[in-house]
Amino acid sequence: MAIELKYFVLKPGGADAYAVASQKAMECYAHAIRKIDPELTTALLAWVTRAKTNAKAGPIEWPPPRQSLSTVDGLGNRADADSDCDGEVDGR
User: Fold this and answer.
1) Burial readout 11-42 (b: 16 or more C-beta within 10 A, e: otherwise)
2) So what's the pLDDT on residue 3?
3) pTM to 2 decimals?
4) So where are the chain's domains?
5) What is the spatial distance between Cα 18 and Cα 8, in angstroms, rounded to a whole number?
């Protein structure tokens, strides 16, 4: 089965396998774009943190509250920290 899409949707809320996979994908995407779009990186990581914190999260606040990269979440995770995701994009 071949799937060729321009977009696909992730749903990070919850604790099932799909939610956990969505959370991981969002974290990796945020890590990859951290140098070219730090504001989006911060917002994505904050969103994932809220989803992990509350598996029954209600609607996500958008735009998210302003946070600095050093306080991306309450768990000490920073947008500029190393991750187990591969690579970054350079904006070209």
Assistant:
1) ebbbeeeebeebbbebbebbbbbbeeeeeebb
2) 73
3) 0.63
4) 17-71
5) 13
